[in-house]
Amino acid sequence: MGKSKNNRFRRPQFNAEGLSVNAVKEVEVDHDEVCDGIDSPAGELLEKLQNPSADMREFACASISRVVQQSQTIPAFLQRDAVRRLGPLLLDRSLAVRETATGALRNLSACGGHEVCEDMVKQDVMTPLTALLREVRPSLVNHFHYKQFKNPVEDVANEAVNLLWNLCESSSQALCVFNKAGLLDVILQCLERHTNNIQLALSAAHCLHTVTEDNAELLCSMNNAVLGSLESVLLSSETAMAHILLKTLAAGSLWNLKSSLPTARQAQTLNALVATLSQCLELDAGTLIPQLHQAEVSCSAPSSEAGEMDDHQAVAEDMEMKRQPRWIKISRTCKEELREATALLTAQQTSLEIIVNMCCSDDPSDDEWEEASSSDESEMCPDGLSEGNTSLLSPLCLSAEVHGALINHNIPEKVLRKTQFPSTEAMDVCRQNPTWKILMKKMHRVQYRALTCLHNMLSTMDAESLGGAAALQAVAQHLSTLVFSASDIPKEEEFLEAVTSAMRSLLQIIASMKIPQCFTPQQLITLSEAATRCDVVSVRVNAVAILGITGSTLAKEKGTSETLQMIGNALLQVATKDANLVVCGEALDALFDVFADGDEAEKAAKNISLLSALKALQPVFKAKIRKEGKGKYSPEQMCVLDNIKVNLRRFIGYLEIVVKK
């Protein structure tokens, strides 16, 4: 069904600590503090929001913030109109109430997911949120302070920006309000606080990275000041992991805004952007994570000079923990080292996702997530930034320029290093420490993103840019080790999807260049068998495509009929038994390629009775298309399936001629 498609990443949701929303499920929460859905405290807590005491309102908001981290409690709050009751408290006369109320809504949006976010927007949460952000902006502009002094207005702003981020990620209506209300200026003001308040700047950078993606209306608000703010972050000399993440997010936003870049700044900005990604990927998480953990252990060792806390201090600390809302409490004494490790992995994952999108085809038909945009949208921008932007980042020459920058900064080599399995030492450190366990999945996710990145680079870059035949054979050997070195093929779906995509792209290049490859047919059949047990359709599609590429190559060689029989039987199994028509179609397409021509293919086809098998399959395949097609598959998929149906009829005619020879 054609060549493999390039993958493209849209922004996931993250909290201010750099943890994904899905990580809420991965973190252990004290179940004694949270009631279940049946005995929800929602009613009592919501009543306390109207209490005349600011302390009581703050306590209620902080309690709601903790309770909704258990997703089963969320319906009880929504049924009691929690959003409309919390909304006015965003403008409460008490800053502490504002912060905790915004934090409660932030947690509700994070733990409730897309549907809850949509519902919150429908309940007009954007009105008080917009008013709050406008109100805090003057304090962000005029308040100068040293890092060691806490600015309560910035704490409120941090919660508000995170809430805005979640809502804009999940709701097109929220994004529309963002554009029309001119909230970009507030986000940039928060971003510019990066020298004094890195957490606020990170929240703003995450939000900006989200709202700039595929947002043509926002592009018209771009000006040199906006681009200058992002470039100043990009060129910062700070080396802490939080600042590495900040610079990576700024790079992602600049990439999203590439069509707004003035012609004179395009080359310089592109180079700085790719240099930022390169510096991030240069860091070795396998070495740094054990070092950061050891630093945490050293810092938390008992000090002979530290006295015991008295009861009053203990109670005060407990109250402070309760009053500061968090999405997730990693621990009561969340250490900076864990925050740094999390920022490192988030930055590397984000860097790889940006590179994936850089290597994604500009043709919307090549990517199911891409939407066609008007060719004259950029002409609507009022300040003339888009005028004449056809020299560097226009669709016709985008790939060549971007690929050149990637090669100059050794990105392919750095991406390949990230495709390795996570460091055993780093994994052991995280496995043995409960608060660090959440990093294990993040380390694996970096590997998965690197494999997807490798797939896109293989699909869009020429072989010489990737190092030529020797380098491609080395990549093949590396992928072979990842997949086949253990006694069983790894079963993790995200890994299988990424690695089979990379293998498919690589084999297509190797076959076109007639380079010997190191995968044995038996290995690939084993991979196909493992893929048939995977629920992810793209994994099964990749597996049969890999068999098709290998088989069509072998069909041109002498003495390969027995191997072709094995491949043919494996493909017939999939075409006959897979429940998904797209997978069945890919298997049939692979069979057409393998047995299209050649003495070895003809011999193998006769030995496995391919003609009779396909004749038996033909009416079943046609009936499934007629019965399931229109309701279950997209128009594009139906078009491809109809073509395969026609090709199946023609291929059966061809085999009938072969049999008569």
Protein model, in words:
By secondary structure, the protein is mainly α. Helix content is about 65%, strand content about 0%. It is built from 30 helices and no strands. The radius of gyration is 28 Å and the shape is elongated. The chain starts with about 40 loop residues before the first helix and ends with a helix. About 15% of the residues have low confidence.
Give a short overview.
InterPro entries: ARM-like, ARM-type_fold, Armadillo, SYO1-like, TPR_SYO1. Residues 364-380 have a biased composition (Acidic residues). This protein has 661 residues and is mainly α.
Task: Give keywords.
single chain; 30 helices; 661 residues
